[in-house]
Amino acid sequence: MTREPDRVVVLSGGVGGARFAAGMAMVVPPRALTVIVNVGDDFEPFGLRVCPDLDTVCYTLAGLENPETGWGRRDETWHALETIETLGGPTWFRLGDRDLGLHLERTRRLREGQSLSRVTLDLCRALGVDVHVLPATDDPVRTWVHTDQGWLPFQEYFVRHRWQPRVLGLTYRGAAEARPAAGVLEALREADLVFLAPSNPWLSLDPILAIPGVRDALRPQRAVAVSPFIGGQAVKGPAAKIAHELGLLASPLGLARYYQDILRGLVIDQVDAALAPRITHETGVRVYITDTWMRGPEGRARVAQSAWMFARALARA
Ligand code: GDP
Ligand code: CA
Predict the structure, then answer these.
(1) What is the Cα 224 distance to its own chain's centre?
(2) Is residue 3 assigned to a domain?
(3) 292, 288, 312: which is closest to 300 by C-alpha?
(4) Is the residue at 79 inside a domain?
(5) Distance 12 CA to ligand 2 centre (A)
(6) pTM, whole model, 2 decimals?
(7) Are strands 33-37 and 8-12 parallel, antiparallel or unpaired?
(8) Tens digits of per-residue pLDDT, 144-176?
(9) What are the phi and psi torsion angles at 134 (to 5°)?
């Protein structure tokens, strides 16, 4: 008798989430995998709807991502941006020509009244992606960052100010009124295994978890996170800096404390192995130690495979 494959859900931001999701798509059949993606970074430059995390996930799953930048597409050209510059327009947010084509088409469909989740599934399918990629919500949720320079919308903080202002707090505008996109709660409820990708907790995971219903649909006994912190640092981006600024620990212990009520297990890097006993003793979260650097496709598959085996063992225990 053949068993149905485990249904797997990954909660994801951009680059860390996309790499992990791409690894998971090599471990489980792509159709058994749903990736629920942060939309708190979305914004509207030039009136176009840009969804950086959704696009990073779709491009990565399609094998079209830019390995150098971690955002945008490979083999990109910049003629449109050069024209904008010549004309004196704003160019601090980099939009490549190939990438722009996707934003144009998405914006056209949204203006016709289609939902973001419908449009995302169609665009991903057209790029050859069989994984279910869902925005956390079709409603507007926007991350705003309270900094020592005042309140900044996410892209101003992240791109324009290169995440240098000190973070005093965060808010996810619209989250309290947002409804999860069609399929999000069902996927979480029906999932055999749920993973919190090694994404930024405050900029990527919390804006998903802040949408009413999401936390409750996530069954902690099936949930495993992968730490984005390795040896007190983030592999990329401001996660460790923000942790310090918020008075939290930039380590798997800090992460386990922060998410202990929604997690059964945590995958941590071998360099943090010494923290394992304390994590489990303090928070009850079980720990799996491995090399969590996702270098290249093999690294992604290896980390996803470890997390998957660990989560299965926990769910069956
Ligand atoms: P963003 O939306 O593009 O900022 O991406 P995410 O929030 O999904 O991911 C950012 C996080 O990914 C950072 O905190 C990194 O530490 C983490 N990350 C990136 N690459 C790796 C990796 O190879 N291993 C681990 N463990 N974390 C990673
Ligand atoms: Ca992001």
Answers:
(1) 15
(2) no
(3) 292
(4) no
(5) 9
(6) 0.97
(7) parallel
(8) 999 999 999 999 999 999 999 999 999 999 999
(9) -125, 135
3-state secondary structure 243-303: HHHCCCCCCHHHHHHHCHHHCCEEEEEHHHHHHHHHHHHHHCCEEEEECCCCCHHHHHHHH
Number of domains into which the chain is organized: 1
What are the CB-based long-range contacts (under 8 Å, 24+) for 292-297?
Answer: 292/198, 292/226, 292/227, 292/230, 292/267, 292/268, 293/230, 293/235, 293/269, 294/19, 294/20, 294/23, 294/198, 297/22, 297/23, 297/26
Q: Give, as one character, the DSSP assignment of residue 4.
A: P
What residues are in contact with ligand 1 under a 6 Å CB criterion?
A: 12-17, 19, 53, 56, 197-200, 203-204, 226-228, 230, 234-237, 239, 292-294
**Which residue's CA lies nearest to atom 2 of ligand 1?**
14
Residue 36 has φ and ψ, to the nearest 5°, of -100, 120
CATH code of the domain in which 301 resides: 3.40.50.10680
Domain that holds residue 172: 8-41+129-316
Residue minimizing CA distance to atom 18 of ligand 1: 16
- Nearest CA to 242 among 146, 142, 124, 114? 146
Q: Which two tokens stand for residue 263?
A: 């997690």
Q: Which token pair is 296?
A: 């290249």
User: Which residues does residue 289 pair with via DSSP β-bridges, in sequence order?
Assistant: 268
Whether residue 30 is contained in a domain is answered as yes
Residue 56 has pLDDT above 90, yes or no: yes
Task: Tell me the per-residue pLDDT of 209-230, one tens digit each, with 9 for 90 and over.
Answer: 999 999 999 999 999 999 999 9
